[in-house]
Amino acid sequence: MTTGGREIMEAEGQRQGHERDAATAAILRDLIVISRRGVADARVANLSLSMTDQSILGYIVDHPGCRSVDIAEAYRLNRSTVSRQLAGLTALGVVREVPDAAGRGRPLELTEAGWAAYDEAIEILHGVVSRQLDGWTDAQITRFARDLQRFNVGRTDETRPRHPLEAHDGSHDGAAPGADNAPRGTQGKKEQQ
Fold first, then answer.
1. What is the pTM of this model?
2. Distances 97 to 8, 65, 76, 111 between C-alpha atoms, Å
């Protein structure tokens, strides 16, 4: 390859690197906006639980049989912090330890009141997302859902909450977006709209 050809390839590589960096920065900005909007929408909706409480309930729903140590590890929190949060949720009557489970760190589950609070939050936030997607085609929504799932699954070597469709080994189970994996209380919402 000539020197001129090599310089052209290097310049093209640098241009593509700058485009990738700019796109990555745009993704980060948009994720921050989405997060802030979700918190604001939850606040305006006057939900009965905080976003932190909702995220813990969501983790328990997505990971049946999980223990407090699993939540601490997934969210990179001190165990005592999670214990205090769970004590508050238990006092509210929305979370309980599974009865008759042996050993330390008993599995957690939602109570009926917990399911009601979780369903309330999911229904409100589902409405917010549906309104944002108004005017999108089914193909665009399916692609967006697939891309978000791929993004959320992330790398197998990182410690973070797993996506509900992700297997314990980090692989994706291949289910189509929305196929029997909708949070409780949201099944059939599309038909109702």
1. 0.62
2. 63, 9, 21, 10
